[in-house]
Amino acid sequence: MPVVPLTLIISLLLVFTFVVCFIGERNRSRHSSAERDSLLPLAPEGRASAGRPTEPPAL
């Protein structure tokens, strides 16, 4: 049955991917806190936001 080894390989790849992403997120979150991350959407974006043009389009 080639299905069982294939299933095991795919499962191990998914586990490896999850572990790598989990460790990366854990290392990234050491430099910030949950409170800071929750306020990121409210932070100013700089000179102009990406969705709003600063001047009207030329006709």
Fraction in beta strands: under 5%
Structural class: mainly alpha
Order of helices and strands: HH
Query: How would you sum up the major sheet?
Result: none
Average pLDDT level: 79
Taking the alpha carbons of the first and last residues, their distance comes to 67 Å
Shape: elongated
What does the model show?
The protein has 59 residues and is mostly helical. It is built from 2 helices and no strands. It has helices spanning 3-29, 34-39. The protein is elongated.
Please describe the structure with a list of short key phrases separated by commas or semicolons.
mainly alpha; 2 helices; about 60 residues; single chain
Give a short synopsis of this structure.
The chain has 59 residues and is mainly α.
What order do the helices and strands come in, and which of them pair?
Blueprint: H1 3-29, H2 34-39
